[in-house]
Amino acid sequence: MFSSDSLYGGISIAGEPNPGGGISGNRDETVIAEADRYIIDRERPRHHLSFGFGIHRCVGNRLAELQLQIIWEEILERLPVIEVKRPPKRVYSTFIKGYENLAVVIPRRA
Ligand code: HEM
To answer: How far apart are CA 74 and CA 46, in angstroms?
Structure first.
């Protein structure tokens, strides 16, 4: 929610939901260095807002991380090379930074 002194174009938006808050927070260069770069071995990788913050922080966050770790371990063991053919088509959303379409080629293993 926007706070009581929040304005947009001079109009108060106090109390309105802020769907982009976590996304813009994750790009805050004063907190996260080179926030727009995907740095797989960055320091403090869990220091982000994608699972929310505070008392309603996602209760499934550890399970989600474990699922993603396992799925990538299994995929990369079977398919070590995955070539991205062209820039992906992104989901048009203020909330989800996802892919609508990502064309890849998986070469046959020798
Ligand atoms: C990558 C996967 C996931 C993402 C990005 C995600 C993200 C989030 C976000 C942003 C919230 C809202 C936090 C807030 O309101 O401040 C949330 C809440 C929640 N998530 Fe997740 N989540 C994921 C996976 C999961 C999984 C796997 C489970 C359960 C098995 C789960 C269960 C919940 C529950 C129960 C809440 C409500 C917590 C509350 O209101 O106290 N999530 N999640």
So the answer is: 22
